[in-house]
Every structure is written in structure tokens, then in C-alpha cells.
Amino acid sequence: MPAHLSVRDRVVLVEAELDFTITMLQLSTHPGFTKMRQRPLDFLTHAREHLRGCVSPSHQPSGEVSQWLQSLQEAMGRENIGCLQDYAVRHVLEVLEDLKCTALQERCS
Fold first, then answer.
1. Angle between helices 38-51 and 81-105 (to 10 degrees)
2. SS3 labels along the chain
3. Quick check: 14 and 51 in contact, CB under 8 A?
4. pTM for this one?
5. Which residues contact 99 (CB under 8 A, 6 or more apart)?
6. In angstroms, rounded to a whole number, what is the distance separating the alpha carbons of residues 88 and 67?
7. I need a surface site. Which of 50, 59, 63, 109 has the fewest CB within 10 A?
8. Which residues of 21-54 are buried (b: 16+ CB within 10 A; e: fewer)?
């Protein structure tokens, strides 16, 4: 996560990353993965719910963040879901690091 982003933009970005990761984890139908994903899914959902409301709905993300959010939405619409699921599982550690970075910058008020 770029250090130059405002705390609000960081929160918006982390929330979008959590939404993406949760969506991808929920889509998996592999029987062995279904049971294993529940605890991480609960944790990520809980973290996302804590972020909701931290940034005013009137906040306009920077151009850089808006562009990233748009690219993410487009990728979810056209990419192979299996590839996106694999990416989400690998990406989850980065999401957690971004969440930590956001939390250490400023508390939600």
C-alpha cells in the first residue's frame, strides 16, 4: 500500500480488498476448502465490518485509489473466477498487512 495515501484512502482501499477476498473465498465449492476457509472468512468479515462507517460516504477517494477500485471491479467481471480465487488466497496476507498499516496510522473516529 503506497505510504503517500491518506488514511481515508487507505481505509477505502483495505475495505475493497476485504470485499474482494471475502467474495472470492465464498465462491469456492471445493469440499476440503469449505471447512478450512470458515475461520479466515469469519475474521475477514469481522475486520470489514469494523471498517464500515470509518470513512464518510461523502469521501471521494484520490484518483489513484479510484482507478484501482475500478480496475478491481472490471477484473472481477471478466477474469477467470478460478484464477481470481487463487489470487485472493495468496493475496490475503497482503490484505492483512494493509489492514495493519491502516490501523497504525490513525484510529477510526
1. 50
2. CCCCCCHHHHHHHHHHHHHHHHHHHHHCCCHHHHHHCHHHHHHHHHHHHHHCCCCCCCCCCCHHHHHHHHHHHHHHHHCCHHHHHHHHHHHHHHHHHHHHHHHHHCCCC
3. yes
4. 0.71
5. 14, 18, 47
6. 19
7. 109
8. bbebbeebeeeeeeeebeeebeebeebbeebeeb
Distance of CA 84 to the CA centre of its chain: 13
pLDDT digits (tens, 9 = 90+) for 66-102: 998 888 788 777 667 777 777 777 777 777 777 777 6
Inter-residue contact 37 to 25 (CB < 8 Å): yes
Give how far Cα 10 sits from Cα of 4, 63, 83, 95, 101, Å: 10, 13, 25, 11, 8
**Distance (Å, whole) CA 1 – CA 102:** 9
Q: CA 7: distance to chain centroid?
A: 15
